[in-house]
Amino acid sequence: MARTVDPARHQARRLQIIDAALTRFAQDGYDRATTTSICRTAGIGSGTFFHYFPTKRAVLLAVLDLGTAETAQWFEAQAGRADALQVVTDFAAHHADDCTDPRVAGFVQAVGAVMTEHDVAAALARDEDVLHLGLLPWVRAAAEAGEARRDRAPEQLTAWVTVLLNGYLDRLAGQRAFDARAEKDMLLDTVRRLLRP
């Protein structure tokens, strides 16, 4: 008789492994991180790891996909809001707050080492699409309400907001002195100035 799987427990264990992998990739880089070190950080055996993920690459992709899913969920949770421009700046603040996780810089560097690999590039492209599609309706609504500039197409403005968010992340990964918490206000100010009518 097949063993019954508790979905909540299964998901919790999967997230535990993903979190441990994020830590190892951030601290060791992609190449030096091993499934053994991920298992040690997660407090599990290798059999458990391979039950959830067939390879180290698979768990890296799971970390990326989880971030993409969280972005989609964040935008879904904003449905019904009438303050479109504030939604955009709230997302920028959310992004900046996520960047205060001390593992983010190292993880971005780890992903950078394999970002040209087809499956990683595809995961990053999905993430970019979800971000763009999440922001675009709010930028468009802000322009229609007169809260945001109309001299540029909403698609172009959304692309530039994305450039700012990605640049913030890249700066964090590339400059040890860059403090995500201290620079948050500057990011928000820059987004507002970009969109200001």
UniProtKB/TrEMBL annotation:
It comes from the Bacteria. Keywords: DNA-binding, Transcription, Transcription regulation. Residues 34-53 bind DNA. This is AcrR family transcriptional regulator. Pfam families: TetR_N (PF00440). Residues 11-71 form the HTH tetR-type domain. The lineage of its organism: Bacteria, Bacillati, Actinomycetota, Actinomycetes, Kineosporiales. InterPro entries: DNA-bd_HTH_TetR-type_CS (IPR023772), Homeodomain-like_sf (IPR009057), HTH-type_TetR-like_transc_reg (IPR050109), HTH_TetR (IPR001647).
